[in-house]
Design goal:
430 residues, mainly alpha, two-stranded antiparallel ribbon, 19 helices, flat, disordered N terminus, lipid biosynthesis, lipid metabolism, nucleotidyltransferase, phospholipid metabolism, phospholipid biosynthesis
């Protein structure tokens, strides 16, 4: 519980002007949410203390969520993308609902409709870009899709502009400040939720391993930090999250790095996890079959002299991806939690316990994905910076859509370049 000043009754860090604005917006910003633990668990755990009851509730629901995670992975990329979109919509709903409750904005003209309209516009833009990028051949084959693809950005801008004009027309004199406040709230929510979920899908197309390992590392860090903190925690870590401890933070770090390294070793041996997710035009389905890249081929590495005497080995065989997994798991355990701290600060600002009560013992969907979104951005940037190179198949697809004279010009330019480098001549001699 957080204490408030009885004389001023303000939120933590709130100024006098903030209190006046809050009064203008309709009263107190305090919003209460509570977990709705199933009755069957309440009866089964009735003899335990609240501390251990919460431990068991969180543990049982965590196992259920992990099981669900494995099931959707088994069902394939399309189901994964659908789940990501459903999670995105639910997270958006939770954050927007907090804004409505805090600022009593249910009576604002058109605003609930406009919030969801902007969500639709942003999703149309991002998913349209994804479809054009990854389903290029299918799009070119269907006339309606080809037209939508050609003018996709113009259509997206026109849709957004329509919503913008609707917002301006909805402005009411007595609600100006509140309407602009909620307009900004909606757009920040879109930036945090929709953009990050779009990056998760892009990571998925690079290969299931780029989706599963980062998410698993965040889950592992969350679980192990909680376990170490529960049993050994003594030293508070950060005031934003009073229950977080240094013992949990450090224990979660080492556990996550080891877990990520071992999980990467197991998954790197399977093509279904390492191959990029591609669309097969012949079968109109996704395929994950390829020749594994060097990242997923065992290589021999020399062990540093300092460690040779400790482990007794001079070399070790491992996948190059395992080295990258150390960077991913390190981020998940050292920087990823700051997404959770950010969410904790947000909840403290508005005096709420959780974003919602969707999952007993865990809060809302956003409470479980606050670190995942930050992780998704890092993975996408990491792939673009250190992993991804030009994609020959996409270049060929784009080349085939050009006019014959443009294709001929590119062919002659490429031929001249290869002759200058001596490559084409050697191939003709062979």
């Amino acid at each position: 519980h957080w204490q408030e000043s009885e004389s001023e009754n303000r939120l933590d860090g709130e100024t006098a002007s903030d209190s006046e604005s809050r009064s203008e917006f309709g009263g107190s910003s305090t919003v209460q949410t509570s977990d709705d633990t199933p009755e069957v668990l309440n009866r089964a755990l009735s003899n335990l203390s609240s501390r251990w009851k919460n431990w068991w509730v969180r543990g049982i629901l965590t196992l259920a969520m992990i099981t669900f995670f494995f099931i959707i992975i088994y069902l394939g990329p399309m189901v994964l993308m659908t789940i990501v979109m459903c999670v995105q919509i639910k997270c958006f709903h939770e954050i927007i609902t907090i804004g409505y409750n805090v600022y009593h904005s249910y009576d604002l003209p058109w605003f609930r409709t406009l919030s969801w309209y902007f969500l639709l516009c942003v999703n149309y833009f991002f998913y349209g870009e994804t479809v054009t990028d990854y389903f290029f051949t299918l799009v070119q084959r269907e006339e309606p899709l080809r037209i939508l693809s050609k003018y996709h950005r113009f259509i997206s801008f026109a849709l957004y502009l329509t919503g913008f004009c609707m917002f301006v027309l909805s402005l009411v004199k007595k609600h100006y400040r509140l309407q602009f406040y909620m307009f900004g709230w909606t757009h920040v929510t879109l930036l945090i939720v929709v953009t990050q979920s779009h990056l998760i899908i892009h990571n998925l197309f690079e290969g299931m391993i780029w989706f599963i390992v980062p998410i698993s590392c965040v889950i592992c860090n969350d679980i192990m930090a909680y376990m170490f903190g529960f049993f050994f925690g003594r030293t508070p870590l950060i005031k934003l999250s009073p229950k977080k401890t240094w013992e949990g933070f450090i224990g979660g770090f080492f556990s996550t790095v080891l877990f990520g390294w071992l999980l990467s070793y197991v998954m790197s041996g399977y093509r279904c996890f390492t191959c990029p997710v591609e669309f097969n035009n012949d079968t109109n389905s996704f395929t994950v079959d390829c020749e594994p890249s060097e990242l997923f081929q065992l290589q021999e590495y020399n062990i540093p002299l300092v460690l040779q005497s400790v482990v007794g080995w001079k070399t070790v065989r491992m996948y190059p991806f395992q080295i990258h997994s150390i960077a991913l798991s390190t981020f998940a355990s050292l920087i990823g939690p700051f997404g959770g701290f950010f969410a904790s600060g947000f909840k403290r600002a508005f005096k709420i316990k959780d974003f919602a009560n969707t999952i007993p013992g865990h809060g809302g969907i956003m409470d479980r994905f606050d670190c995942q979104y930050l992780m998704a951005t890092f993975v996408n940037v990491y792939i673009a910076s250190f992993i991804r190179g030009p994609n020959p198949s996409k270049l060929i697809q784009q080349f085939l859509t050009l006019r014959p004279d443009q294709q001929l010009h590119i062919f002659n330019t490429l031929k001249a370049h290869l002759v200058d480098r001596g490559i084409l001549g050697s191939l003709e001699d062979a």
